[in-house]
Specification:
The chain is mainly alpha-helical and about 210 residues long. The chain is built from seven helices and no strands. The N and C termini lie far apart (about 45 Å).
Length: about 210
């Protein structure tokens, strides 16, 4: 590898590290800013955006966010829920970007389904999904029913937020992606309206590539 190519890889790596750090920081800041409002959150939207626009870097940022949260809130069963949920949100929307899904209602529907699953899975973990015990189904039903209005609030929040905010924010982040990694994306993305780019790593990089609410 010649010196010029090494510098090029070095610059790309530096940009990627800085971008992942900023994404993880905004996830933590957004989560903390809304922590006082039960089950009103922006983490689903941010994880979805980061996965949709930045692909693997967004998934990695979600993992770092999950690693940071216990340092703020302490450890508990919710850490398992977070580890199994937030990176998956970014991963799912990365896949939707690969499929070039741009319909805002369908994107909101996917976000809603993921939010429903978050409530179900978190309740299952809380009542002993991995530790077992008698009458698991009955205990789960009682536990979930007690917190159902909190889950309804979270679902409604995302179903309202995604149709309004996802596409405009994805457009802005897509511009940032093209500016930071100019050779990573086609110069003229004629097939994508509103300048929204699906996550796609640069060709030279493809080979390497209770709950506090």
């Amino acid at each position: 590898m010649n010196r010029g190519l090494a510098k090029k890889y070095g610059r790309l790596a530096t940009k990627a590290v800085a971008l992942v750090a900023v994404m993880a920081a905004t996830l933590t800041a957004g989560k903390t800013a809304l922590a006082a409002i039960p089950n009103v959150e922006i983490v689903t939207l941010l994880c979805a955006l980061y996965g949709y626009v930045f692909g693997g870097m967004g998934v990695f940022a979600a993992l770092i966010f999950v690693a940071i949260e216990p340092l703020i809130w302490g450890y508990g069963g919710w850490v398992i829920t977070y580890l199994c949920h937030w990176p998956v949100v970014a991963l799912v929307f990365w896949g939707l970007a690969r499929l070039k899904l741009k319909n805002r209602l369908l994107l909101a529907l996917v976000a809603g389904v993921l939010t429903v699953w978050f409530g179900v899975f978190s309740s299952m973990v809380d009542v002993g999904l991995f530790t077992g015990g008698e009458n698991f189904g009955e205990r789960f039903a009682i536990y979930y029913a007690r917190g159902v209005w909190f889950y309804v609030t979270q679902i409604a929040c995302n179903l309202l937020l995604f149709p309004i905010a996802f596409r405009p924010l994805a457009t802005l982040l897509g511009k940032l992606h093209r500016r930071m990694f100019p050779r990573a994306l086609p110069k003229e993305p004629a097939d994508l309206p509103d300048e929204v780019e699906p996550a796609c790593p640069p060709p030279e990089e493809q080979a390497t590539d209770s709950h506090p609410n």
